[in-house]
Design a protein that fits this description.
Elements (H helix, E strand, L loop, with lengths): L1 E3 L8 E6 L13 E7 L13 H4 L1 H11 L10 E6 L9 H17 L5 E5 L3 E2 L2 H12 L3 E5 L10 E2 L7 E6 L7 E2 L2 E2 L8 E4 L3 E4 L7 E4 L2 H18 L5 H11 L1 E2 L18 E2 L5 E3 L5 E6 L10 E4 L6 E9 L4 E9 L2 E8 L6 E9 L6 E5 L8 E5 L5 E9 L9 E4 L8 E5 L3 E8 L3 E8 L7 E5 L5 E8 L5 E7 L2 E6 L7 E9 L2 E2 L2 E2 L5
Helix pairs in contact: 2-5, 3-4
Length: 519
């Protein structure tokens, strides 16, 4: 069932931790409440004069972008302001931590849901700030943060680097990464989505009817906070992970020219710009995203580990290396906490692990394993063994032998369970998830001529859960998924590889009966 999306965020409160806010501006008057919280450092310079229009400039503009009457995204959302940045826009980790504690205590005495905490600030990496944000998310709060304006890896900054936080980079009017003088938006695997953040019109603190333009990832994150308020107001029970998946799903893909990004960041930076959904699907829908690890070390035993967030299930695991020297990947289950582990190889320059993280109720995925024996000389396979399980991904690794990419998923038929098939050169894993209401199919692409990049995209309405390559040569750099596309990277000296994807969707009802689980 589909419904038109016209919600204005009326049910949502947004806690804004920033500078002061001019609460009598006509854009936000009546929908903004200034709390009595203030924890800011002294301004630099003995001759600095505090002017209300300067002290409130940033916060007023952001509040207007979120819920302003004329220029706001979620015109019905209410905003509560906490002052953690001084008149020069500077703050401290301790001030932000105390602000988080203030919100926590407020919610203990006055519970409210759905609630968004908006952190339009970025400082150096802070383990304690990330941990505090993670705790707030575990309490049910959605946190949206600016990626930072340093033209660097967002993983170097907090709270942008916290995986449970929704981190937003900035684009300009041409949907390209926003530049700000010699600097610009941060980027990298810690960014979830980009949004407009260049020359954004919003409320000005110069007067109660004034407008001005400002730029930065704060403005971009304010747009996403507004979109999030609209979605949450329609479905207040969504967790932060479920909301993130929807923001990714409704974003516009492949608009960004990746040449702006540093070469080593192009593969791992998401190429998507936030969009407002025109309609929502009321029925259960499968949502998936890719979560990248940091680059492993270059030693023979080096590994990279990727995780999914809370409320997500790991449907598959893949890996890619910088020069093709890797030993594969597998999923480890530590008491329900799964890890996608990728193995570097001697002579390697580091490898990435890529977890495919999905939202599907009670999926309860398990990993079935086939380990090579001395007698194995040909093809081997590992199957899902329960009728209620669907095959969502295949992976393999070999620490003792030459590793080559040669896995094919074969989905269930009337007489056989879904299985992963590969050549006998290591350990083979099948990801089997309890999802009897999903139907899945394999889509693959084999290019006529050799190319270093082979891609296959799931059909409209289907969601990518697993991504594999089938190649008879050892020169495959690896496999990764970007949104709904499975991508294989090979060296120029490699052999032609086949891109193989598992694509799933909620089963369609056919005359009151459910169709077969596989196609």
């Amino acid at each position: 069932m589909e419904c038109l999306f016209a919600d204005k965020g009326d049910l949502v409160e947004v806690y804004l931790l920033d500078t002061g806010v001019q609460s009598n501006h006509r854009e936000i008057e009546g929908r903004l409440f200034v709390t009595d919280f203030e924890n800011v450092p002294e301004e630099d310079g003995t001759r600095f004069h505090r002017q209300a229009s300067k002290c409130d400039s940033h916060g007023t503009h952001l509040a207007g972008v979120i819920s302003g009457r004329d220029a706001g995204v979620a015109k019905g959302a209410s905003v509560r302001s906490l002052r953690v940045l001084n008149c020069q826009g500077k703050g401290t980790v301790s001030g932000t931590l105390i602000g988080l504690e203030f919100v926590k205590k407020t919610l203990a005495t006055q519970p409210y849901s759905p609630l968004i905490m908006f952190l339009p600030l970025a400082g150096g990496y802070s383990h304690i700030l990330n941990a505090a944000c993670r705790l707030m998310v575990q309490m049910g709060v959605v946190i949206i943060a600016a990626a930072g304006n340093y033209k660097e890896d967002a993983c170097l900054y907090s709270p942008a680097s916290e995986p449970e936080v929704i981190t937003v980079g900035a684009t300009n009017a041409q949907d390209q990464p926003a530049s700000m003088g010699t600097l610009g938006t941060n980027f990298g695997r810690c960014v979830d989505v980009f949004a407009p953040g260049d020359d954004i019109i919003g409320a000005s603190s110069d007067c109660s009817t004034c407008f001005t333009s400002q730029s930065g990832t704060s403005q971009a994150a304010a747009h996403v906070a507004g979109i999030a308020a609209m979605i949450l107001s329609t479905n207040p029970a969504l967790s932060a992970s479920e909301l993130r998946q929807r923001l990714i799903h409704f974003s516009i893909k492949n608009l960004i020219n990746e040449a702006w990004l540093p070469e080593d960041q192009r593969m791992i930076t998401p190429n998507r710009v936030a969009g407002i959904p025109s309609k929502l699907v009321a029925d259960e829908q499968l949502y998936c995203r890719s979560a990248w690890s940091s680059l492993s070390g270059s030693s023979h035993a080096a590994i990279a580990i990727a995780h999914c967030n809370s409320n997500e299930e790991m449907f598959s695991c893949s890996s890619v290396s910088k020069n093709g020297k890797r030993q594969g990947e597998h999923i480890e289950d530590h008491g329900g906490r799964k890890e996608c582990v990728a193995h570097n190889k001697s002579g390697g320059q580091g490898t990435y692990a890529i977890a495919r993280c999905c939202i599907w109720p009670k999926a309860g995925c398990q990993i079935n394993t086939y380990t090579q024996t001395a007698e194995d000389t040909t093809v081997r396979s590992v199957s899902c063994t329960k009728d209620s399980h669907v095959l969502t991904g295949c992976s393999s690794y070999s620490l003792d032998q030459e590793f080559s990419e040669n896995i094919r998923p074969v989905l269930r038929t009337e007489s056989n369970h879904g299985q992963c098939i590969g050549e006998a050169d290591g350990t083979l894993h099948a990801s089997c998830c309890h999802a009897p209401s999903l139907e899945c199919k394999v889509q693959e692409y084999s290019p006529v001529d050799f190319t270093t990049k082979v891609m296959v995209t799931c059909d409209d309405g289907w969601t990518l859960t697993g991504c594999n390559a089938y190649s008879h040569g050892p020169n495959t750099f690896g496999v990764y998924s970007r949104d709904n596309t499975c991508i294989i990277m090979s060296s120029p000296q490699g052999k032609t590889a086949v891109a193989v994807s598992i694509c799933c969707r909620r089963q369609l009802l056919d005359n009151g009966d459910q169709s077969s689980s596989y196609k």
